[in-house]
Amino acid sequence: MHRVHVVGRQNHGKTTLIVALVAEFRRRGIRVGTIKHSRHTHELDMPGKDSYQHRQAGGEPAAVVTRNLIGVFLPRPDACVYERLATLYADCEIVIVEGDIEAPGVKIEVWRAAAGSTCLAAERSDIVAVVSDDGPLVRVPVWPRQDIIRLADHVWMLARKPAQTGE
Predict the structure, then answer these.
(1) How far apart are CA 87 and CA 82, in angstroms?
(2) Are 98 and 106 in contact (CB under 8 A)?
(3) CA distance 157 to 21
(4) CA 101 to chain centre
(5) β-pairing, 62-65 with 70-73?
(6) Pairing label, strands 106-110, 3-7
(7) What domains are there in the chain, each with its CATH number?
(8) CA-to-CA distance for 62 and 60, rounded, in angstroms?
(9) DSSP 8-state code for residue 85
(10) How far from 119 is each of 9, 19, 41, 114, 126, CA to CA, in Å?
(11) DSSP class of residue 103?
């Protein structure tokens, strides 16, 4: 799985950037998948619903299929979650993960000075680039937010590097 993680603190524009990148990759005819990582524990199903009862009974995986969507519920593995998801994303040429800064893999940070926090790339050696219009003083390349075409070129190149650890 060729993936890149878009990381950063809350309200710095990660989702906005990912949406723009997905649109640009799709415009190019590239098959792109996304994963939203949350550090919190969430119940993604509703207690009392049939699908919830399927899972509670031991269905693994369990799925909900509607006329327009399929939702698959898998328990979180102890091992690398991306290995577990690889078959679902097998047809993707690139996968963009929002968050999961602790996972192995390529990471770019989205940073805004106005949000009032320090740039993570100044503290972490695993971030390879920053997307910002504020020009943080960091050791990695800083790419402007507005140049989505060139930014997509950079992200594509980073994600396509030889196999990443933890895949």
Answers:
(1) 9
(2) no
(3) 13
(4) 10
(5) antiparallel
(6) parallel
(7) 3-40+75-159 (3.40.50.300)
(8) 5
(9) H
(10) 9, 22, 26, 11, 13
(11) S
Token representation of residue 148? 């989505």
Mean pLDDT to the nearest integer, 48-55: 90
- Spell out the residues 6+ positions from residue 113 whose beta carbon is closer than 8 angstroms to its own: 132, 134, 136
Between the alpha carbon of residue 38 and those of residues 7, 87, 157, the distances in Å are 12, 21, 26
Q: Which of 79, 140, 110 is nearest to 11 (CA)?
A: 110
- Would you say 54 and 137 are in contact if contact means Cβ atoms under 8 Å apart? no
d(CA 148, CA 17): 8
pLDDT tens digit string along 5-39?
999 999 999 999 999 999 999 999 999 999 999 87
Q: Contact, 136 vs 142, CB < 8 A?
A: yes
Number of CB atoms found within 10 A of residue 86's CB: 15
Sign of torsion, CA 89 22 143 122? negative
Q: Considering only residues 81 and 75, tell me which one the structure prediction assigns the higher pLDDT.
A: 81
Half-sphere exposure of 101 (CA within 13 A, CB side): 17
Helix ranges restricted to H, 28-64: 50-57
- CA dihedral for 46, 51, 55, 56, sign (positive or negative): positive
